[in-house]
Amino acid sequence: MLQTGGRTVAKEKAPKPPKIANIQDFQFYPLRLKDLQKQETQAFQREIGYKVRPEDIDGDLDEEAQAARIQEEQAKIDSAEPLTEVELEEKEKLLSKGFGDWVKRDFVAFCKALEKYGRNDLDGVARDMEGKTPAEVKQYAAVFWKRHKELADYEKIIANIEKGESRLRKTQEIQDALTAKVKQHRAPLQQLRLQYSQSKGKNYTEEEDRFLLVTLERLGYGSDDVYERILHEVKTSPLFRFDWFIKSRTVVEIQRRCTSLVTLVTKEAADASERAVEEQKVREREEKEKEKEAAVASSGRKRKSVGGSAGKDDKNATPAGTG
Question: Rounded to two decimals, what is the model's pTM?
Fold first, then answer.
């Protein structure tokens, strides 16, 4: 309140800025909410006589293009109208429809977990996230895959997820090859044979290699701490009670040897697959040849049959002028 010559003059209140929610793209609020908040902000800017500045314009523009953008944005402000009661009510409803309780940390953890487990193992994704239930993760994932192109770096995010899924497929292919190899034998620790290359390796025995391979298959290729667990089983197995060589290996050395053995098994599986494909091609060619031969033979029989019938007709025909 101001007093001037005995009169009290009410001080004009400054316009109150609108309450604008800090919306992040990964929270996937309805797009309409962004439009309403922008309109509300522009109406407030009009009320306070705000003038658009060059630094308000995004993008690397030349002077003429920047001036045009400034004029365009200023025109939007000068014509902006405050939200109506209906629009304010709509805005409040829309604020409850996004993932406002998902912060940046949650989003980063979600994307990393997708790289690790893939888009189909959402229970695995939820296990790697703090403070989110499987139901919450599944609800978020459904919206994420529908609207991921709204994210600023969506191409990079999706590329990383797909790269992780490619690793998962490769891991599963290796696990399948190991399982197929082990399941060939009733007692793989005694019966399994490896097709070594010329450089088998001088230090590891075949018994040690069998144990490493069978244990890797059982614990799961690519599983957490798998080589630490293999080494623990090596050290506690009665098979190697006096085998100081393998018991003194490090985790890195066990991993390196397992990698070499996996290479042998996958190569053996690939060779077997190629042989199966070639054998199938040979069978298909043989079937086609048989079909051709059968068709030729059938055609020959038909011609003979037609020729024989014609000869009989000629013999049975009554000569002209007789009877």
Answer: 0.70
Report d(CA 217, CA 174) in Å as an integer.
9
Distance of CA 82 to the CA centre of its chain: 44
Cα 110 from Cα 125, distance rounded (Å): 7
Alpha carbon 243 to chain centroid distance? 44
Residue whose structure tokens are 């309805």: 30
* 172: CB partners within 8 A, 6+ apart: none
127: tokens are: 């296990």
Predicted confidence (pLDDT) per residue in 266-288, tens digit: 999 888 767 767 777 777 777 77
Radius of gyration of the chain (CA): 39
Q: Smallest Cα–Cα separation from 268: which of 201, 210, 181?
A: 181
Render pLDDT for 299-315 as a digit per residue (tens, 0 to 9): 766 666 656 555 555 55
Q: What gap in Å lies between CA 281 and CA 265, rounded to an integer?
A: 24
Among 312, 199, 204, 321, CA closest to 256: 204
DSSP 255-286: HHHHHHHHHHHHHHHHHHHHHHHHHHHHHHHH
- Of 240, 266, 267, 242, the closest CA to residue 254 belongs to 240
Query: What does DSSP assign to residue 58?
Result: -
Helix (H) or strand (E) holding 113: helix 104-117
Top-confidence residue, 295 or 312: 295
Rounded Cα–Cα distance for residues 95 and 30 (Å):
8
Instruction: Identify each DSSP E strand in 31-169 by its residue range.
Output: none
114: nearest Cα among 129, 95, 133, 98: 129
Beta-bridge partners for 7: 4
